[in-house]
Amino acid sequence: MSDHEGHVTFQHGQEFLAAISERWNYQILREVFFGVGRFGELKRALGISANILTARLNSLTELGLLTKRAYRSDKPWYEYALTDSARELVVPAIAAVTRWAETHATDTDITHHPLMHTTCGNPTNPYLACSSCHQPVEASALRPVSAEGGGAGRGRGSAPATPGDHGSGPR
Question: In angstroms, how far is CA 78 from the centroid of its own chain?
């Protein structure tokens, strides 16, 4: 899943899900997204042992989700950042999970993580929207479409189904 790979396969998605399902990886990625990028800062923020943090950071770097950059010339100390490809998937996932947790938390001491849309400079609460009508998409309003209906099983790059299009015949 590195930034250098040109062709992503289904297995890359499985690797990503396995990686963030690991006990510490999601928390590390979340902290890096919210600006905690140095080893010592991550160790303190997460309460994780140094050897486990080192192993997790190495794994996330090997998967192409994090980059590391030395920030001291006299010691091998590094700071970590999300790769561009990781930001495409990790940022929306972290934003969605964080918003869900903040909305449904029963703990009054929960830390809120405000977000700013850098394009317009305004605070934002990102949401999933329909690419056709641009309305917010709720889980209850989504359903898979069978291969015969022009949805699931279609090849990459296929044109979206249009009303009355049932996926048969030439396009």
Answer: 22
DSSP for 49-105 reads -HHHHHHHHHHHHHTTSEEEEE--SSS--EEEEE-HHHHHHHHHHHHHHHHHHHHH-
Question: Among residues 78, 21, 82, which one has the least CA distance to residue 50?
Answer: 78
Secondary element (H or E) of residue 15: helix 10-21
d(CA 58, CA 74): 21
129-152: per-residue pLDDT in tens?
A: 899 999 988 888 888 888 775 544
**Cα separation, 41 vs 32, whole angstroms:** 10
The pTM score is 0.66
Residue that the structure tokens 């898979």 belong to = 144
* Dist CA 37 CA 48 (whole Å): 14
